[in-house]
């Protein structure tokens, strides 16, 4: 079976329905549509969460009856809902009448002023599912709310009048609100996976037994103690990680909070007191290899927030780890054969409290099976996006379900409950995509985990939503990019829809959310390459597009700034295209500038000046000839102009910032930027010299570029961790475990 490269909850049926159909109302404005197992609802012909406060709520089948959330349905049609936890009763107030639904009972009672109470019996009972009262669909919709119910092939409509649920309407509704469905039982999951899993009869492995779902704490978790503060010890001016979206934090290998410097070295994380340019090691975090399993943790990325240090890493195992050989028995001769041990890998997260002396104390740990795709932090919630691929050699008919460990629940690994898994009925995937949310502030709050049969390759996050995208070259539609949207609010993560665009995405900067719409830039590799910009609405339906841009070239960098967009393509010269996106239904190119070379990364200096960092290229030979910094005047959108440029080194020069925006240090107060680089300089007769070190530059608000200083590594060019940061007036050049410090006014070395 050919393995799909990406099958994340994607809207495959979208291309089976003409795009103009989305402009037509599928159901009347006074009607809502639901789907069994789906967390989505169609209201006013827009997709929304069925329960905005609880994205895990879906309509279910119980005792051959469809149950729906009492609160969500009642409140949508104007009723007032409350719940009495003592009596365990849900109350609906509507038109002067009160309807009481006792939990786990097969009746409800009606009370009205001046009228005797009436008890009504029905053939099932009210249930609590996902902390919501679930009641029979027709009972609440028809008998209490007085609405009309339609039902066909798991599609439900509730409104003032009947809806013609013909074949086309049902298919269109499934395309919208039936994109992903919750798995309800192990049997259902087994059937789905059996349909997509090849057989390997000679490979056997007995996996972990499923564990119960994490239980909510019996009482509200205690608040974390107030963090010690010594504002006098902390700087008011220090560098932060260069991030795409303001308010959405990204992980990096080095962080500072204005006093302490944190460095992730793989084998450990070191904490230094910056000490006015004379760093002092205050603590170190290391994790030992497990002597039994041979597993070890690589500590790779960091977050820092108000006294909390978050470490991300991966737990893996040595393939050749020596384990005890089992004792053979007469009735089990096969025991002489060394058993197969699955080499599972986990994404690892640890939260530490850092005191005023730079000393650590572990707060919580979390692990989820799979490889980390990316992460983001918003306020006190950290989001992990993880890919977990099926291991066919150890499945042999057994259902492989991701395992996790949450120290707020247990020190043991647990199997993710099946009701935390969703799937795309139109496209089954051979892997899991997992989205986990971790509270880094509260010490006792469990993490939330949702898994989907699918995978992703790129992550973008706005302040309201998380987008996971990936290129799918196996689709018969051609080269496409699938996009899944998740609404995020603290620990609440809910699938909000899926869409697709033609072409492939370069990196996270190829996506941007503005005024609820998603802008996406792609390169299509079908036949001759061409490029495009697409605008999708809040439901990821197509709004506008510009296609067939720069045929024969590909996108090298993208930046969106408000209602403007900037795309750099390249073949021999660097065309910078400027887009007017003020009308999302009709985006258009309003300007173009061609200069030698190309920009791998675009950074706004201000609303009128754009900085490009890339490579210089000989216009005739096409040979790359050094790291090029260019500034562009984009004040007149239709007429972009190059203000200045500076080329560092010759062919063979390289800097991490060309492929990683987080390698760029920004000091807006001084108009300063800095990054580590390797500069090759040709000296003639096929000879060359190399300079290894940090480039310190000034990029003014008007676009002038000036090289201020080149700081050498002094033989430490082989370092893995290379970052430049500043605290107050001191520049820190981190090279693994070595920190070189300089006065930012004179660039005289301090230590």
Looking at the chains present, what oligomeric state does this protein adopt?
single chain
Low-confidence stretches: 1-23, 199-233, 333-341
Query: What average pLDDT do the residues reach?
Result: 87
Q: Largest sheet, if any?
A: 6 strands, mixed
Q: Which structural class do the helices and strands define?
A: mainly beta
Gross geometry:
globular
Description of the structure:
With 751 residues, the chain is mainly beta. 5% of the residues lie in helices and 47% in strands. The strands form 12 sheets. It has a 6-stranded mixed sheet with strand order 15-28-30-29-25-24, with no helix packed on it. A 6-stranded antiparallel sheet has the order 20-21-22-23-26-27, with no helix packed on it. The protein has a 5-stranded antiparallel sheet with strand order 3-2-1-14-13. Strand 16 (254-256) and strand 17 form a beta hairpin. The longest helix is centred in the N-terminal third of the chain and has 11 residues, at 167-177. The chain is globular and about 100 Å long. The N and C termini lie far apart (61 Å).
